[in-house]
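INSTRUCTION: Work out how this chain folds

Fields: amino acid sequence; protein backbone structure tokens

Chain under study, with its fold:
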Amino acid sequence: MEILIVEDEAEIAQLIQLYLEKEGFSCRVCRDGINALQMFQDQKPDLIILDLMIPGLDGLEVCARIRQKPGTKDPYILMLTAKGEEIDRIIGLSTGADDYMLKPFSPKELVARVRALLRRSMRQGGQSQAYRTQHFVIDVDQRLAQRCLDSDQLEPLDLTTLEFDLLATFMSYPGRVWNRTQLIDKLWGSNFFGDERVVDTHIARLRKKIEPDPANPTFVKTVIGVGYKFEDAAH
């Protein structure tokens, strides 16, 4: 697994690199947002550890630009910040970060969070599953999601890794109501450390890509006081 560490404080970057490489990960380090985007394009890392306050482009802007770039490899993003305000967590997650850690942090906890994020992609190995409903087709093995058009043609959906996993989970159990804890356990595993509201953020992002009217969803519906469910007629 390739990890890109974007951190302008040399001692912190070296500490993160030391602990991750001891665990068998391959790491590269850069110190600013411009180089981070270039290394993302060149290296295609599996996961990016991204500091919020970096020179050039800040972490929020780097995260947003990475999520806007379509591609076959959509990395997990773990954001680091010395800020502890609630609004910073919400902004960080809304730009597409998968998890969030406050400085100072325990290197061992950081390694645990990295493993929890990457475990999701490793668990996909060996599966050969496809789901189809009236409006969607998803192939878990090929990591391919498509929308069914009126002309019986299929249109590819440009989903992030998390959005794909959410849609696959929903389509595997149509009509089932999922609460946040169940979705986190399904997608992140039992070692998730972050804010449960990250689920709401990624649900909103998925809706923007699959719903005719995201404000009044047809497919991914909110069950007030409980969670979410997926409704679409069987094909």
Observations:
- Residues 82 and 103 are 5 Å apart (CA to CA).
